[in-house]
Every structure is written in structure tokens, then in C-alpha cells.
Amino acid sequence: MAAIPDKYLDLLQQKKAFANLATLMPDGSPQVTPVWFDYKDGRIRVNTAKGRVKARNMKEGAPVALAIMDPDNPYRYVQVRGRVKRVAEQNADAHIDTLAKKYLGKDKYPWSRPGDVRVTYEIEPTSASGMS
Predict the structure, then answer these.
(1) CATH assignment, 6-131
(2) CB count, 10 Å around CB of 89?
């Protein structure tokens, strides 16, 4: 597992930065989605509903990349490449509520739909670089 350089940890731990998550489609073409995320125990965690394109692309072991831009300076960013290490439905509803608190200041994720099954994906970085 690669460590995120200290000079970019504020983007992962303190700021309300969005990540542009790149996954691979079954035909090998890239797919990119802006996502909420958090950072715990050296892993980046994202959350989505089962059945969405990124969810179908992010099986355990799947390669992914994220570009996280500083919301205060768009010329400063960190790029992280890694692999999906863990996929879990357990506690995923609580995780999306935590992300709603971070990004919206709300205790509950406001866009839940009946029948949605939330999934949390833990991404283990294999490399990280950026521009300050």
C-alpha cells in the first residue's frame, strides 16, 4: 500500500473536496464519476447504490484512479491509483450518512430511494502524486 504524501492529506481529511473516480468498463474503456469520499486507515472509501455503473465496475481487486482537486485552489490536486480492497453492504447506510454530514451538513443522506442498497468500497492506494 502506498502512502498519500503528507502535503496532500488535508484534501483527504479536512477539506470538502470531491474525487473524480475513474473505473474501467467491461470493454476496457474508462468511466469517470465525481464522488464523495472519506479516508480511513490509509484507504479511501466511496459509497454508491448497488446497480450503478461504478458499482458494477468496482469488484474486489479492480483497478481505479481518483483525482482530488483542492476546492480552494484548482491548480493543486492529488492523483491516487489503487485497487478496490473491500466491498461491503454492511454499515454502508451509516457510511453514506457520514458523508452527507461532511458534504451537506445533514445527519441523514437526503436522496435515499426505497429499495436502494448502499455499498461502501475501500480503495487501497498503490501510488499517489500531485501538484501543489
Answers:
(1) 2.30.110.10
(2) 11
